[in-house]
Amino acid sequence: MFRTYDARAIPFLPLAAGLLPVFADPALLGPFLNPLLADFFGSTRNVVPLGWVGFAATMLSALAMIAAGILSDRGSRLRLCAGGAALAGAASLLSVLVPGGRAGYAVFFGLRALAGIGTGAFVPAAFSLAADTVDPGRRGTAFGLMSVAMLVGRLGGFGLAGALGTRWRTAYVVVGAVELAAAALFVRFREPARGGREEDLREAIQEGARYRFRISKADIAGIRRTRSNVWLVLNFVDAIPGSIVLFLIFKYMKEVHNLNPASVNVMLLLVFAAGAAGAIVFGRIGDWGFRRDKRAKAITALLCNAVPILFMALFLANRARAPETAGLAAALAAPGMIALILTVAAAMFINQGVNPNWYGTLADINLPEHRGTMVSLASVMDLAGNALGPLIAAYAATMWDLRTAMGTVLVFWAVNIVFWIPVLRHVRSDIEKARAVLRARAADMKKESS
After folding, report:
1. CATH code of the domain occupying 1-191
2. What is the per-residue pLDDT across 18-45, written as a single tens digit (0 to 9) for each?
3. Following DSSP, what letter does each residue of 134-155 receive, concatenated?
């Protein structure tokens, strides 16, 4: 299904699998907060030092994404993937040497910063490569699988941390070793032909012509004139609802529905599984519609933003409450509890259909040498949304209450719809404009190779 024309070029599935350890790595910090604080400061009271670790890693990752996006549109994306995975892996593997005490904190801070740079280098290059390993009509499904890989990677990090208890060095060593293995795997493959899966370039490339175009300063004006780009990249709003839910969910479920953390973890496992299924299902729906209407991926993404509002409203209206000191079975038996969990799972199932169709649309409207840059810019905006969400939730919960804070999710989902309306207006013409450029280039490439 995802074969490339060049058998030596990296196939899609190993590329997607490379996301697993890269996203498991940053997920380890949260579960190990207390063991890390105890090792470095002898007390778990003040979390701020580790907050700065997470902030620094995220900011450096964002800066690396921008640089890597531009580099991936000018040079080897496969080398960026291998280098990013190797840097993150080496930084994690070296955690075994981190001493205790405040000196250990300084070393750990530096290693996490390096790992953040590695992650930032990997992501835009991986998505740019993915666009050249699958046909445009299957990109929604492919990006859906990549979304699942990122989600499973995060869950894998949480699960590994839970299994190892306080042994945080061991967890980082395990993840680092897998990252280094992924880097070594990438070195074995060859870069797929840039633009090789585009319908308008395929014949010329198969005949031996080379797509020699790379991003330059002169391209910036053209990228801005692609009107859908502006709305797709600026739409950091779509990251805010999910970050609000993850920030508040444990406190909300305990105080409003009396669910203990263990029960909430089981619920989240179901919700994440529903989200993974939704990414694949709606990615395929977007692909199916794209073959009939070039707006289909944008339409699917808009609906995947709008419909979850109904299910989230039902979740917020639910008054189910578990009995005091209830275990999982007793909590699930409480009236309305199953409906509570199913409504939030349904909201996640549908909403996760946004990601593959968003990435697919971004790939469709941009030339092959622009995709890494656009993915990097959009990913940085997503990081901004993920940073703003908890801040908004914290202020809303303090000023009003938890229900109101969680209810802001509905507002942001509604606002997010607005960003998709201009995309619907312009996406067909933007796709045709990109294809017209590729057709003209294909003709020139044939002449040059003859």
Report:
1. 1.20.1250.20
2. 999 999 998 888 788 888 989 999 987 7
3. S-GGGHHHHHHHHHHHHHHHHH
